[in-house]
Amino acid sequence: MALTIQSAQNIFSNTQVPSQIPATIALFDQLSVDDQLAYLWFAYTEMGKTITPAAPGAARLQLAESLLNQIKQMSAEEQTRVMRDIASRADSPISRSYGFFSVNTKLAFWYELGELMKQGVVAPIPTGYQMSPGVQLVLEATKKLDPGQQITVLRNTVVNMGFDTSDLGPSSYPKAVEEPAFTRTAPPVSSVKIDGITEPAVLGYIEAMNADNFDQAISLFTPDGALQPPFQKPIVGHEAIAKYMREEAQGLNMMPQKGICENLSDGSKQLKITGVVQTPWFGVTVGMNIAWRFLINPEGKIFFVAIDMLASPEELLNLRRV
Ligand code: EQ3
Predict the structure, then answer these.
(1) How far apart are CA 298 and CA 300, in angstroms?
(2) How many Å apart are CA 259 and CA 111, to the nearest integer?
(3) Which protein residue's CA is at the shortest distance from atom 37 of ligand 1?
(4) Which residues form the OCP N-terminal domain (predicted)?
């Protein structure tokens, strides 16, 4: 039977126990725009007491520079309006430019705005702002998450902001820019060992990803293979996966711990591996508990890999299949 992405998505389906991350984002989505901005400010400053992101490099900030300079020159009211426009995905010139930014440039843009807000150069949350019960509710929900889940909520809310540029024709795309590299926070692990796993494609995948060698990682996929990031649809084909990896997978430290491998009747194999991933934004201070679910074809190539955020650390040990 031919492998299909739809059936591959269902391997080890018990991995996807309801996560508090989409639930928290759903609460956030119900807030008014001003409350959303205030929530992000309080969540970010609260989180900053224990963990702070690394400052984005100069090359990354350069990509957001023109927008940041425009904002610095504005009055406090205009600055607040721009932030509202971006958060509400309005169709304004700045919100459009933001919409074209890559994930990491969006994060760098807000990182810098946060710094400028602290310095008083950009309008802060108005003094006397009264936190609404809605904001309090989302903050309470956020406090219950582990740090890896908290930074995922922050990241995903920021990524969803800005005008949705996906429907605009290619003629409106800005010139493609090269994605600046992240400095690695730890030396890449060269020889990968995963308890219970000897599958060369999986070990090779982790090794290549830990060295930012995306061409090598992609060569392990079938041409119609797919990668499904957490809470997203599968990204299909070498070109699309390569673009995604260059934009979002640089500098990650992947530390798989253990896994299981099952042979299927058609000669393919399904594997589930659990472990920890660190993002260059927070380095070794935050670990995200994740699972990789691989479907390997009879020729030893990756047909599908899904990356799931685990709902709790206990899920690291849950390697059973239902
Ligand atoms: C200024 C302030 C505070 C207030 C204002 O009102 C509004 C905003 C938005 C503000 C600023 C907020 C800021 C600066 C937030 C910054 C958040 C950051 C830097 C979050 C970073 C999070 C990074 C994460 C969660 C990375 C996760 C990566 C994973 C799970 C990677 C998984 C992968 C694996 C393992 C693979 O095998 C394949 C690739 C893939 C990438 C999927």
Answers:
(1) 5
(2) 36
(3) 307
(4) 18-169
Instruction: Give CA 189 to chain center in angstroms.
Output: 21
> How far apart (Å, rounded) are the C-alpha atoms in residues 240 and 244?
6
Q: What is the pLDDT of residues 195-205, one digit of tens each?
A: 999 999 999 99
pTM as predicted: 0.94
For residue 154 and ligand 1, the question of a CB distance below 6 A is answered with yes
What confidence score (pLDDT) does residue 187 get? Answer: 63
3-state secondary structure of 187: coil
Is the CB of 114 inside a 6 Å radius of any atom of ligand 1? yes
Q: Is 100 within 8 Å of 274 (Cβ atoms)?
A: no
- pLDDT at position 19, please? 86
Residue that has been written with the tokens 């927070």 in this structure: 282
pLDDT along the chain (322 residues), means of 10: 89 83 97 96 94 92 95 96 97 96 96 96 86 96 96 97 86 80 72 94 97 97 98 97 96 96 96 96 94 97 97 84 60
What integer pLDDT is reported at residue 252 of this predicted model? 95
Residue nearest to atom 16 of ligand 1 (CA): 107
What angle, 0 to 180 degrees and rounded to 10, lies between the N-to-C axes of helices 33-47 and 133-143?
Answer: 30
The answer to whether the beta carbons of residues 265 and 254 sit under 8 Å apart is no
Q: How far is it, in rounded angstroms, from Cα 23 to Cα 156?
A: 12
